[in-house]
Amino acid sequence: MCNYLLFIRKAFSLLIRLMRIGRQVVTYVLGKYLKYFLLLLIHLIPTTSIAQKVIPLQDTLQTVKARGYLVCGVSQGLAGFSTIDDRGHWQGIDADFCRAVAVAALGDKQKVKFIPLSTKDRFTALQSGEIDLLARNTTWTLSRDSSLGLDFAGVLYYDGQGFIVKNKIKNSTLKVSSIADLNGAIICTNAGTTTELNIADYFQSHDLKYQIITFEKSDEAVLAYDTGRCDAYSTDRAGLFAQRLQLKDQSNHTILSETISKEPLGPVIRQGDDNWSNIVRWTLFALINAEELGVNQHNVSSMGDTTQPDIQRLLGYQGGLGEKLGLQNDWVYQIILQVGNYHDIFERNLGTLSLLKVDRGVNRLWTEGGILYAPPFR
């Protein structure tokens, strides 16, 4: 840059000297070289005065370290994903993922602040820098990935949209056993989600009529359904299992077997901070790889003597992979020790150890008939 400025100075000095020589010479020189001089100035402007006004990209990892804790956006309460228990602690697969990232960045799962966000505010909070990470049962779509200045770090849970219905439509003797039985029904759902669009697409393509009522909060939509304002409630299937726990008479409600959409739910970060994106993405991959390699919360501390190279690399005993992300080399070891692998997190929050008892389905490892797959640690 200094060389460019020096060139400009010399160029102006030359023009002044030429002016002293005579008007004809100046006219000749300007006519021949002025356009090149102006082009040079045009190309220099963005890299000098304007560039100095551009705010440098924030390093999220360094911001988190300086603050001393991770700020993670979660739902306002969805069992299995992110909700507060009786002790005031956040629990759920999304909440545990936030903890895993906190361990990666800071070495301690407790160093995370949870910010409950509505569907309306979740992306704005991330764009504005209010949160460092969004882990809020959010569907990865092309439009969200390309137009919001945000990136999805992967898929934490593969889901699909379904419906929960009362065993009978009000004022009808018909038992609802499929979506086709919802022709003419009133459906409750959440505003600002892909759910509304999926319902519209499905019902239109199957020539079914319906009315829809949307709510800002999931609890409001479920209450409206439970009190009879709606004939059905629709959201991601895992969410239906969670919301069914809130109903007055759970036995009087059925989750239909049909799925009308693909809902890959995953963590979201801001575009432009490649290292932070890599940290969040490889935290997810670490959870999956650990399960595949048989490394879990109960046995990870006894893996120090393993001779298996891929486990040694994963846990930081060789390879120095953590350093490539600006992390400690034992960052994955600490994640598994403090939070667990993918299987530990799933079963605790959604599966056999939870009230929901959700089957893993396609969220099984690729080696077990599912589609869960992660790149290798090398």
Describe the structure in your own words:
The protein is an alpha/beta fold and 378 residues long. It has two domains: 60-157 and 264-363, D-Maltodextrin-Binding Protein, domain 2; 159-263, D-Maltodextrin-Binding Protein, domain 2. Helix content is 39%, strand content 14%. The chain contains 13 helices and 14 strands. The strands form five sheets. The chain has a five-stranded mixed beta sheet, with helices on both faces. The protein has a three-stranded parallel beta sheet with strand order 4-1-5. The protein is globular, with a radius of gyration of 28 Å. It starts with a helix and ends in a 29-residue tail after the last helix. The chain crosses the membrane at residues 25-45. Belongs to the bacterial solute-binding protein 3 family. Keywords: Membrane, Signal, Transmembrane, Transmembrane helix, Transport. InterPro entries: Bact_solute-bind_prot3, Solute-binding_3/MltF_N.
